[in-house]
């Protein structure tokens, strides 16, 4: 019985995600789902990227946060639409929630939507939000074993960002192991090394 309930939740999520994907395609909007552990640098990546991209594209951000609006506050200064989702303890975003957030945006006047998912490497990977691409972000202090320990995210991602490369000299981050594991999980996955700072 319980298994049946679980399946219907997943199915409802997938159906809604399909609707979202169709809607955004019809509007010519590209949506990115940014997933990482807490503290990997998702918000800083957006802070560094928005001023550059907004010269060329109309952008909105959907911010998922468990308890605060701290990240949304940090992005206020870029003068773009921000929809804040407080999950009240929830550990991921789902397509139903994203659909409501999209209702708050003027989709006729947007090119790109960034979703900053809740900091968590596990269930955000399993909830399709109707995005065009998932970005899996990891940072060097987390260790090189994240891909092999959380393969679902890396299997479904279109890009992996390795952040905080400025700390590589201080850490025992095994880059060979990191790249080898990624190749085994998802041969197509590109890795972008970055220091967002
Ligand atoms: Mg953040
Ligand atoms: Zn969750």
The backbone outline, from C-alpha atoms, is globular
Classify the beta-strand content into a percent band: 15-25%
Give the H and E element order.
HEHEHEHEEHHEHE
- Decide which structural class fits the backbone: alpha/beta
Provide the low-confidence segments as ranges.
Answer: none
Which ligands does the model contain, each kind named once?
magnesium ion, zinc ion
Order of strands across the main sheet: 3-2-4-1-5-6-7
Describe the protein.
The protein is α/β, with parallel strands linked by helices. Helix content is 38%, strand content 20%. The protein has seven helices and seven strands, in the order αβαβαβαββααβαβ. It has helices spanning 2-27, 42-53, 70-75, 95-103, 146-149, 151-156, 175-185, and strands at 30-36, 59-65, 82-86, 112-116, 133-139, 159-163, 190-193. Strands 3-2-4-1-5-6-7 form a seven-stranded parallel beta sheet, with helices on both faces. Strand 2, helix 3 (70-75) and strand 3 form a beta-alpha-beta unit. Helix 1 (2-27) packs parallel to helix 4. The radius of gyration is 17 Å and the shape is globular. The structure holds magnesium ion (MG) and zinc ion. Magnesium ion binds at residues 42-43, 71, 116.
Question: Top keywords for this entry?
Answer:
197 residues; alpha/beta; seven-stranded parallel sheet; 7 strands; 38% helix; binds magnesium ion; binds zinc ion
């Amino acid at each position: 019985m319980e298994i049946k309930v679980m399946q219907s939740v997943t199915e409802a999520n997938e159906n809604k995600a399909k609707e979202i994907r169709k809607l955004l395609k019809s509007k010519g909007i590209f949506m990115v789902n940014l997933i990482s552990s807490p503290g990997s640098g998702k918000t800083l990546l957006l802070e560094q990227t928005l001023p550059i991209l907004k010269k060329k594209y109309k952008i909105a951000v959907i911010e998922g946060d468990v308890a605060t609006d701290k990240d949304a506050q940090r992005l206020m200064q870029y003068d773009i639409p921000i929809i804040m989702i407080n999950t009240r303890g929830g550990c991921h975003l789902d397509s139903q929630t994203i659909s409501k957030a999209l209702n708050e945006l003027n989709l006729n006047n947007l090119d790109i939507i960034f979703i900053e998912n809740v900091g968590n490497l596990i269930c955000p990977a399993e909830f399709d939000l109707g995005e065009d691409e998932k970005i899996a972000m990891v940072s060097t202090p987390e260790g090189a074993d994240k891909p092999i320990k959380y393969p679902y995210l890396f299997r479904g991602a279109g890009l992996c960002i390795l952040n905080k490369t400025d700390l590589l000299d201080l850490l025992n981050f095994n880059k060979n192991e990191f790249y080898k594991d990624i190749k085994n999980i998802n041969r197509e996955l590109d890795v972008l090394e970055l220091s967002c700072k």
